[in-house]
Amino acid sequence: MINLLPLAVRLADGDIAKADPQDLAALIEQVQGLLLPLRERAALEVPKLCFCRPVATPGRAGVYELLDDNHLFRPGEMVALYLEVRNFTCTAQGDDFRTHVATAVEIRDERGQAVYRFEINDKADSSLSPRQDFSNGLRFPLPSLPSGAYTLELKATDVPSGRMAKRSLDFRVTTVPARGI
Fold it and tell me: Apex CA 56: angle with CA 53 and CA 58, to 5°?
């Protein structure tokens, strides 16, 4: 096993171009081993949340097309969200590793009143090794809302630890039909 500190000091001094690839791989493995328990104790975060248009790409998750910032939503339109979560728990269960993040979405009007809410508490995701990242795409039909400004609030909960994180997006709804309809 490589001693982490001397190699890290050499790399910090600019010796990365001369470093042995095997030593670097061992260093990365050791750092990952240190990060896993830290992530599970750190604050849960939702660093990315955006309105999007999913792109159908077989075998690739997390591929999306951002909507314009001035996109006007219409009642009944299918809303798609892309989100990323950091510092979630990934627990070993037999030969698998389990990640369980539940999400709740709430839409609030200009006065801050909740006008729509739903929760997704899907079963835990399984992987063959500890997950380093977690992304998800949510879809739901926009309820019948009057024209105006709204805020979408997303709450992510790391089910095993109970830690929560929130993130919000402002958006506008119009009842004017889209062009060509």
Answer: 150
Length of the chain: 181
Strands 125-127 and 163-173: unpaired
CA 163, chain centre distance (Å) = 14
- Residue in this structure with the two tokens 């060509």, named with its chain if needed: 180
Number of domains in the chain: 2
Judgement on whether residues 68 and 99 belong to the same structural domain of the protein:
yes
Q: Are residues 35 and 96 in the same domain?
A: no
Following DSSP, what letter does each residue of 104-166 receive, concatenated?
Answer: EEEEE-TTS-EEEEEEE-PPPEEESS--S-EEEEEEEEPP---SEEEEEEEEEEETTTTEEEE
The dihedral built from the CA positions of residue 69, 107, 50 and 179, taken in this order, carries a sign that is negative
Q: Are residue 74 and residue 144 in the same domain, yes or no?
A: yes
Which residue range is the domain that position 153 belongs to? 45-173
Whether 93 contacts 58, CB under 8 Å:
no
CATH of the domain at 74: 2.70.50.60
> Tens digits of per-residue pLDDT, 100-148?
999 999 999 999 999 999 998 777 888 898 887 788 788 899 999 999 9
Residue 180 lies in a domain: no
**What global pTM score does this model have?**
0.79
